[in-house]
Amino acid sequence: MTTRNDNVTTNPQGPWRFWWGASPLPDGAEPLGTVTRDGHDTGALLRLRSGQLVQGNVRSLRTLPPGPIPVDYGHGGSGHAH
Domains in the chain: how many in total? Predict the structure, then answer.
């Protein structure tokens, strides 16, 4: 797990599907694990086709705070759909 200074934590092995649900991902999106804000606001960490990283919760997408998000791109989260 990696933490940023503004209380954003990522977990490349996190259960992204638990937070996203059974619905298909947006076209071209890639699951990268989970992201947690302020220690309690958790969701699926998704990279959209555009390259933007977002937090996904049950088909809802939220932008992440500006700045670099620490992600291990070599490992999809558990339940990786490829």
Answer: 1
